[in-house]
Input
Amino acid sequence: MSDGPEETAEELYEEAPCGYLTMRPDGTIVRVNGTFLRWTGHAREALVGVRRFQDLLTGGGRIYHETHYAPLLRMQGKVREIALDIVRADGSRMPALVNATLKLDADGEPALVRTTVFDATDRQRYERELLAARDRERVARERADRLQHATAEIAAAPDREAIALALLAQLTAVFGEGRAGVAVQDPDTGDVAVVAATGAPLPGDLEPITGPAYDEGVPGVRGALARVPFPQGGSVWIGFDDPREIGADQRAVMETCAVQAGLALERRRLYERSRDVAHVLQRSLLTTAPPADPRLEIATVYRPAVEHLEVGGDWYDAFALPGGRLGITVGDVVGRGLGAASAMGQLRSAVRALAGADLAPAQVLSHLDTFVEQAVDARYATLIYAEVDPATGEGRCASAGHMPAILLRAGGAPPESFMAGRSTPLGVPDVTKRPEARFALGPGDGFVFYTDGLVERRGESIDDGIARLVAALGRLPGAPPAALARTLPEALLDADAVRDDVCLLAFRRRA
Amino acid sequence: MSAVERNNVVVSGDPQGVPMVFAHGYGCDQNMWRLVAPAFEPDHRVVLFDHVGAGGTDPRAYDAERYASLDGYVEDVVAILEELDLRDAIFVGHSVSAMIGVLAARRAPGRIGRLVLVGPSPRYIDDEGYRGGFSEEDIDELLGSLASNFLGWSSAMAPVIMGNPDRPELGEELTNSFCRMDPAIAEQFARVTFRSDNRADLSSVTVPTLVLQCADDAIAPREVGAYVHRTIPDSELVVLDATGHCPNLSAPRETVEAIRAFV
Output
């Protein structure tokens, strides 16, 4: 030290690069250095013997001092790196890092407190930035979570009302309770209809808009109203009785939710339209009456699955062939919906056309194999096709991977599965030649053709299901086809759990 | 988990003596009583504990919903009293624990026979016709202070501290550990403490009550102590010649004497 520049202890204390204070145990300042006075603008005589250290803190800082700082100082004899704001003489605040040590007297009682104060303006600014960034990140993450949740809810909603309700629930979560609603516009008529709303909409809620519209309201005049249109027509709104701020974050959530809901509503509308078309198509194909022939009684039944809104691809058909014979078929196209319904229609027409050209059943199937190479939705369809001469009861039959027909015998003879003439579903490669079976029906004999929905049950093999069908038929000896069509679905299916469409065609030579 | 485990309950003193339960306030832990509680060990059964979230408790025991109001803390106190089967105990509550004691005495009649309220305040924020000493902005500033001071807390240290409370080699690192608290818990406890309003509960106190008021307390000013004394029917007020909110640390002898005279 002796070789260094001159510096007195007094200078070192007064000009130290930190604030220096000595206090009595109760906080009363007894000594303070020049640096602290310069930083804070306080006069020495305004502090020494007059103010306590905690008097120089903010209100919140005083609470912190009493609940953390002072107890820690007493318990561990020191505190380190405590961030506090010092209130300057002009009322402004100086962010500070404070260290203090407690000196005990000979009896171990607190005697004085030595405190150093560091200007932490830059550090605090940096920390505040870090904290703000963390908070922003948290807000962003929460928003992303909320939006993800909203999107999932909206996507999972089964119908228009559920989509609207999911959207309203999200808005309420973001904005709080308000007068909210969802309206959609019919693209054909232009009519706007409210799908769901909490609280009756006011006239302004439904006014047409082209983009997001936010009105934060005017005190005493009108409340706040936020509205976002769907690109496909209609809009979502949330309104309040009182004016309020509608933050950027809330706007972003609302617009994102509206886009999601708009898409979901549009998907739902298109889907419903396609479903309606499919139903019409299917009904038009299945409602043709079988040809009336006094020698052969035919009955049919078709039951859509309760679990599906979309139509299935099952069908039945019976039609007249040259020479007084009848063509009879039951088939099942893979899949559901408009595609399956139209494939079913194509196959049904193709069967009629091919059979009408006097092709034998196996040849009909072979031509259909070629046909489904073009009609992709019809590929892997199964079907059974039979031609029968009502006069003699003789006939031929071929099955492309379809459920086995059940042969009915007159009188009390037991029914049996008819396994002959079966091969793979349509369009499966490497089918060289379709087999064909011949049969002869005596008076009272007949067949039951059906699709898998009739015999499928959860947790049961299809063979057990077929055995159940055979057993059920065995309990109905000699029953006319109309009676079979009426009673078989009841007997075999659990009414509430029809998982697949059920299609059944029964025919019998009259005795 | 039993309340005794959950609240880090430490029992000492004379098992046959009248039980005394010491409850720490907002900020630190049961160490706040280190200069006071030992004075009662010769003739009292002394029970110390930490509120969940504070001191040596497992942060996993903290449930933001349960502790969203003072009720969760009150239930904990009642559970401790019941588990230890304490009757007519002297409950010494500092700061926010004074109000927790007021509520617990009502919740579990017969368990608490006397209340000692050290620096009590039924409401910290000013209201019409009532001066608690603080404004909403002060409380927000406090939350700011909490956010910049993670005393003795770091997520890396937490498991070490929790698993090894007695390891002396951690001594230096455990600086500020008396006030360590998960930052999120500290913030919620601060909100619950400083935004509570228990003025209406005071008149329901039926047990003899001692109000210990510091002459100069920045958190619970003298007029608040007088309000508490005025509102609790069977209460006496003792003003300690002490500065600050923690006479249990700054004036332990006076504090002990005043409590002794009361019990």
Q: What stands out?
A: The first strand of chain A starts at residue 19 and ends at 23. The mean pLDDT of chain A is 88.
